[in-house]
Design brief:
Layout: H1 3-13, H2 19-26, H3 30-43, E1 63-71, H4 79-86, E2 92-97, E3 104-110, H5 113-124, E4 130-137, E5 143-144, E6 147-148
Antiparallel strand pairs: 1-3, 1-4, 2-3, 5-6
Length: 162
Amino acid sequence: MSTRDELLALLLENARYSTEDLARQTGADAEAVAAAIEELEASGLIRGYQAVVDWDRADQERIRALVELNVTLDRETGYDDIAGRLVKFPPVKSLRLVSGDYDFALEVEGDSLREVSKFISEKVAPVPEITQTVTHYIMETYKDRGLEMGDGHDDGRLSFSP
């Protein structure tokens, strides 16, 4: 595994590792690690660093929804064109072109059901190429970006195996 790949793996594990921590774990010197990270950021391979928040523990409510989008393309409009318009909306947290029964998987976040519903009905659904939206509100998150949510304790029930 190259130093670059090691750095990426370590930063995926914990983006808060210091340059010194990364240098120690990769066996490279701190200056080389700092330069490699700067290069990864400048090239766009590393797009940013974010905290993974367990909103169930926060005092404020966050509503998240997964929205399936079906689209119809024409000669002048491709998937990238539609995606380019949708990603500009701040409530859109992720957008992926997917295979299967629908074309895009859109993740939206807002302060209330009304806000998320209004955004989908007033901003997403009116996009001319979008022919159908199916919204799934997220009720509980058990794992996000590789991290388990919850308190990590068993639910107290005895396990049963036949």
